[in-house]
Design brief:
alpha/beta, disordered N terminus, single chain, 295 residues
Length: 295
């Protein structure tokens, strides 16, 4: 129907979506996404990662894990050797193998912001306990639960650890871990984001009420965007995978993105597609299809 020579919205035909650009980079989370629940990389996934690299598609692991927990995938980084760790706080070269990683890029949480975040969240959620991740150090408060299967370098209140002349003053702060023993995980995340505001970026990747606090502009998406810009890769040429709230920005930014079958509802809402669960090799399923489309 026309009104005064114009085509109305009632009669306008839907636009045909532009065809997706061939992928140049795959960005995948690890826990709950690429890794099975037993933390292994399945033979099918190993083959799919190798096939992607052979086809000229770079694979980037983009994880909340610290660099020292990257041994499980260090042999699968192929030519570039890089991984994004700490929810975007660091880009690490894993070529040296276990224990020999090299920090290529560090996006630290400034200590003033870190101290503000700790104090504001303590006020908003009494009973919050903290741990501090640095480039090579890990520290925690005495009350913080033993969740990470490692002995901390120091036990002290977060305010002492983060002080300019404190125990952990020698290295950049990558992120703060904030745990609450009784709050609902999603409610704790919402509360923390309101309390901390623009002083830091707050997200979560654990099923428990464990939050991850990074620099204000630091996320998986923002660091991945920097790495892609250095390679001349546009976001339309990126395919991303994830399962938890710390993946949402990355999945929204990428040209194509897939929530795992086991993903958090917010992740399913953010992604442009969905694949099967991590235990069913959901990342490999998509990579195999992408490679088949190129032939």
């Amino acid at each position: 129907m026309r009104e005064n020579g114009r085509v109305t919205s009632a009669t306008r035909q839907p636009e045909t979506p532009a065809p997706a650009l061939p992928p140049r980079l795959v960005a995948t989370d690890l826990d709950g996404t690429l890794l099975r629940d037993d933390k292994s990389v399945s033979p099918r996934t190993v083959a799919a990662l190798a096939a992607a690299e052979e086809a000229g598609i770079e694979v980037f692991f983009v994880t909340g894990r610290p660099a020292r927990w990257m041994d499980v995938v260090s042999e699968h980084v192929h030519g570039h050797g890089l991984a994004i760790c700490g929810n975007g706080a660091a880009v690490v070269d894993l070529h040296g193998g276990p224990g020999a990683h090299r920090f290529v890029k560090v996006r630290e949480l400034e200590r003033n912001n870190a101290l503000d975040a700790v104090r504001l969240l303590r006020d908003a959620a009494p009973g919050t306990m903290y741990a501090i991740e640095q480039t090579y150090g890990f520290h925690q408060e005495p009350e913080y639960p033993k969740m990470h299967m490692e002995v901390p370098d120091h036990l002290a209140p977060a305010e002492e650890l983060l002080a300019p002349d404190g125990l952990a003053a020698g290295e950049p702060v990558l992120k703060i871990l904030a745990f609450h023993p009784t709050l609902d995980p999603d409610a704790f995340l919402t509360l923390a984001r309101v309390a901390i505001g623009d002083r830091a970026n707050v997200t979560r990747s654990s099923p428990s009420a464990l939050l991850e606090i990074s620099g204000p502009d630091v996320s998986k998406a923002s660091t991945l965007a920097l790495c892609c810009a250095e390679r001349g890769i546009s976001h339309e040429e990126v395919v991303a995978f994830g399962d938890m709230p710390n993946d949402v920005e990355m999945l929204t930014w990428a040209g194509r993105s897939f929530a795992m079958g086991n993903a958090h509802p917010d992740v399913i809402a953010a992604a442009s597609g969905q694949t099967v669960a991590n235990n069913e090799d959901g990342v490999a399923v998509v990579i195999e299809r992408l490679i088949a489309e190129r032939r």
